[in-house]
Amino acid sequence: MKITRISRLTGVERTREINLTPAQLAAWEGGEFIQDAAPHLSDADREFVMTGITDEEWTAAFGSEGEDVPIH
Q: pLDDT, tens digit, for every residue of 9-40?
């Protein structure tokens, strides 16, 4: 299903096709943990559904796994 979110990091609106059913989305919106409502989703897809943040935005803001990111 197409999911549209506004990134909590950048404010950019994006739409992505996510392998999610309306029932799974409703379960998450009703308070179920996303990993329980849709355990088949990748980390990136779960993050997009919850926050609208893409992998690229996450890496730009926080670095990639194993990469030291300076704290200001």
A: 999 999 999 999 999 999 999 999 999 999 99
Confidence label for 70 from pLDDT (cuts 50, 70 and 90): low
pTM of the model: 0.84
Residue 53 within a domain: yes
Number of domains composing the chain: 1
Give φ, ψ of 46 to 5 degrees: -60, -45
Domain of 34, in residue numbers: 2-58
Asked if 47 contacts 3 with a C-beta cutoff of 8 angstroms, the reply is no
The DSSP element (H or E) to which 37 belongs, if any, is helix 34-37
Q: Where are the beta strands (DSSP E) in 1-72?
A: 2-6, 13-17
